[in-house]
Amino acid sequence: MAAAHDLGPLPHWDLSNVFPALESDELNAAIARCDNMLGELEGYLDAQGIAKDAPRAEDDTLRTTLDGYLERMNDLVALYHTIGSYIRAFVTTDSFNQTARRMLSEIEPMGVRLRQIDVRVGGWVGAIADALPRITAQPGPAQAHAFYLRETAEQSRYLMSDAEESLAAELSLSGANAWSKLQGTITSQLTVDFARDGKVEKLPMPALINLMQHDPDPDVRRRAYEAEIAAWETVKEPLAAAMNGVKGATSTLDRRRGRRDPLHAALDHARIDRETLDAMMGAMQEAFPMFRRYLRAKAKRLGHAGGLPWWDLMAPVGRRERTYTWDEARAFILEHFAGFSPRLERLAQRAFDSCWIDAEQRPGKRAGAFCMGVPLVKESRILCNYDGSLDQVFTIAHELGHAFHNECIYAAGKTALQSITPMTLAETASILCETIVTDAALAEAQSADEELAILETDLIGKTQVIVDITSRYLFELEVFRRRAKAELSADELCELMLRYQKETYGDGLDERYLHKFMWTWKPHYYFAGLSFYNFPYAFGLLFGLGLYAIYKQRGEAFVPEYEALLASTGEDTAANLAARFGIDLRDRAFWKHSLDLIGERIERYVSL
């Protein structure tokens, strides 16, 4: 793989139009304004008598009170999220930045107060739930936020008392959130000495993981895998403590809130029901044999008698060893986004031109990729760890899809509370954008061997989202089950990880060389308020593929309806939004159809 300097200058994101600097007067003034707005909103709730056991007012009074709350809360949330995104942009790209970390800890108590306001209003809205149909029948903010209010009323059933919820929110800073921060700090600052090309380099973990996954030299991949496993061994105990801390706190709160099981809250947050999850997971597990067929074909190509060792799971196959410079990746993405929608191309052009993307790998920067919205400037920022591989080109396209989703919401004038999108639907635009670029790469392949290489990159990703995601889902289910009884040791977590990798990958992988430490560096397990950050990825992939199939049938006529869908993902359930396109999410046949589209590519791969 080319060295970083061969890729051209790799951008850092530019945040100067948000605030001039971390310790600038402008940012300090915004933080003070946010604090004042919190105080004013808390005073408004007191003045209006907003509480779960407050005396019932007339409908007109309730409507006026709700309208006032919604207007104030929307402004407050937009400001707080903008401040949070700005500071987190420094923390995620440089965890050694003590100023950023201190400022993040300073604004987090405001997040606690927001949560306390949310709980207080949630209890009150639940108490007046019977009046909501009448209140939201009249034009105004309450009517515009009818879905938010109904959902708030439904979820109010799973709240503890106001005092208990207030205490839980305050304790989260020194409890589950602190454990989550510890995991992020350890994994972003861990470095490994690695010998390559006659010299020893000190590599941050994201760079080492990229080597293990994508380097064309099998010896480099194997040694990177061994070095990675050895490195995680040195930090497994504090990471196991972090896992136990997060899952223990979540289990305790779920039980006190009356949740049926650990999945209950995750399904509600995803805005799907158990029938939908069962239909999707059942179809996925039925499809495992075709993914194992792909893995065995790859193993044979790479000279393995049985299944793949972990270090070859994402290895490049076929003659497409070229790397993409940053400018080449940009040009490729823009060209093919334009074929789908001029609006999508303009958004991506703006993201590149305005330096919304932080691409360089460096110590202190977290692994992986993400996109975050910056509401007050109606923009997004994207983090990736670019190494010139086709996989990373697909990753940029994926994250730009998230930015386009944000753009559709901003352009439609949606408020912060109208924009709360579940993870299941948050992957819709990203999957479709990634699919556009993948199809373009396949269409431009100059030979069967190049086609094979592109299919390889595509199938690596889809195997991760279907097979590996299932292993993570099963792992997390079992971790929750055991954590309810006792803490899990690091070795026990490793044993569970191996068990579910064997159960899902089957004979597609070599059981001697799996990855027992996959639980250490995936931040998804450590999000204090969001469990099961796994199955929504599979939902997003298969739902996105289903929509893309409709686009291929309908062409340009599909695009306006699709953009309208993206703009309204915070205002309905997944089932109702899918029904706009004639999709029944509870029907296993829909999920099977999307999986069959992947199966066609696997068959082509095997034939090549």
TrEMBL record:
<feature type="domain" description="Peptidase M3A/M3B catalytic">
    <location>
        <begin position="351"/>
        <end position="595"/>
    </location>
</feature>
<keyword id="KW-0479">Metal-binding</keyword>
<keyword id="KW-0378">Hydrolase</keyword>
<dbReference type="InterPro" id="IPR011977">
    <property type="entry name" value="Pept_M3B_clade3"/>
</dbReference>
<keyword id="KW-0645">Protease</keyword>
<dbReference type="Pfam" id="PF08439">
    <property type="entry name" value="Peptidase_M3_N"/>
</dbReference>
<dbReference type="GO" id="GO:0004181">
    <property type="term" value="F:metallocarboxypeptidase activity"/>
</dbReference>
<dbReference type="Pfam" id="PF01432">
    <property type="entry name" value="Peptidase_M3"/>
</dbReference>
<dbReference type="InterPro" id="IPR013647">
    <property type="entry name" value="OligopepF_N_dom"/>
</dbReference>
<dbReference type="InterPro" id="IPR042088">
    <property type="entry name" value="OligoPept_F_C"/>
</dbReference>
<keyword id="KW-0472">Membrane</keyword>
<keyword id="KW-0812">Transmembrane</keyword>
<comment type="similarity">
    <text>Belongs to the peptidase M3 family.</text>
</comment>
<dbReference type="InterPro" id="IPR001567">
    <property type="entry name" value="Pept_M3A_M3B_dom"/>
</dbReference>
<dbReference type="InterPro" id="IPR034006">
    <property type="entry name" value="M3B_PepF_2"/>
</dbReference>
<keyword id="KW-0482">Metalloprotease</keyword>
<dbReference type="GO" id="GO:0006508">
    <property type="term" value="P:proteolysis"/>
</dbReference>
<feature type="transmembrane region" description="Helical">
    <location>
        <begin position="525"/>
        <end position="551"/>
    </location>
</feature>
<keyword id="KW-1133">Transmembrane helix</keyword>
<feature type="domain" description="Oligopeptidase F N-terminal">
    <location>
        <begin position="143"/>
        <end position="190"/>
    </location>
</feature>
<dbReference type="InterPro" id="IPR001333">
    <property type="entry name" value="Peptidase_M32_Taq"/>
</dbReference>
<dbReference type="GO" id="GO:0046872">
    <property type="term" value="F:metal ion binding"/>
</dbReference>
<protein>
    <submittedName>
        <fullName>Oligoendopeptidase F</fullName>
    </submittedName>
</protein>
<keyword id="KW-0862">Zinc</keyword>
<dbReference type="GO" id="GO:0004222">
    <property type="term" value="F:metalloendopeptidase activity"/>
</dbReference>
